[in-house]
Amino acid sequence: MSKKSVNRAITVRFPTSDYNRIVHDAEQKNESVAEHIRTIISANDEQLSLDQRFVDVERRITNRMFSIVCAVANLSDHEREIARQRLNGGN
Q: Its domain of life (predicted)?
C-alpha cells in the first residue's frame, strides 16, 4: 500500500485588518493567499527552532564562563557547588 501526500484544508477567520495585510503581502510577493500563509507558518517554525538554538548556545556559554571564573578564582568543588546554587536562586 503506497503512502500518498494528503493535503488537508483549514478554515481560519482573521480580523479584517489582518486579512487585508495578509492579502496585500501575498500580492506583493506574487503568491496566493494560501501559499503566503504556508510561508508564514514555515518561517515561524524556523524562528522557533532558531530561538531554541540560541537558548542552547547561551546555556553552553554560561556554563563555560562559570567554569572559567571558578578556575580563575581557584574555587574548591564545594565552593563551586555553593556558587552554582546561589546563581540558580538557592541559598
A: Bacteria
- For residue 4, the model assigns a pLDDT of 72
Taking each helix axis from N to C terminus, what angle separates 33-72 and 77-87, rounded to the nearest 10 degrees?
140
Q: Is 44 helix (H, G, I), strand (E, B) or coil?
A: helix
pLDDT band at 23 (very low <50, low <70, confident <90, very high): very high
Which pTM value belongs to this model?
Answer: 0.58
Distance (Å, whole) CA 83 – CA 63: 12
Using the structure block, give the residue that is written with the C-alpha cell 546555556.
59
Q: Rounded to an integer, what distance in angstroms lies between the CA atom of residue 59 and that of residue 50?
A: 14
Residue ranges per structural domain of the chain: 16-87
Sign of CA dihedral 11, 17, 22, 23: positive
End-to-end CA distance of the chain: 61
C-beta separation of 36 from 25 below 8 A = yes
pLDDT score at 88: 86
